[in-house]
Design brief:
Length: 165
Amino acid sequence: MARAWKFGDNLNTDEIMPARFNITIDEKELASKVFCEIRPDYAPNARPGDVVVGGWNFGCGSSREHAPVAIRGSQAGCVVAASFARIFFRNAINIGLPILESPEASAGIEDGDEVEVDLASGAIYNRTRGTSFQARPLPPFVLKIASAGGLVKFLREHEIEELTA
């Protein structure tokens, strides 16, 4: 079971990963500072598979990839939000961070709730409250990118001919 880490609306990339720490692309180093100004308890206490839950417009702000890389480096299982800023959404897919949009799940999950997420079906279960939610599932191709660890790693693993077949 994964713990939910709840955040509000309009969480920007500088709140996820403050710019002064963007001097590296090492995801473990970035993960050690993720959410450090708004949730200093996150980095030292997050467990592999935990779920970051956001409100509307999650990841707004700059186009830097450091924010989703830092979340991935924290070994979060996925990010569930009411909606994502488009650039964050694209960056998350490109670097292999699974994300699901569900306004209902965002509203129905509280900080510390125990949750399960099925990325293939988009099902989100709040085991603490006995509720479930349905997000639009990620397409199989996007799941393959996430499983590979991002678009670049995915492309390295596959021949161009396989992609056009």
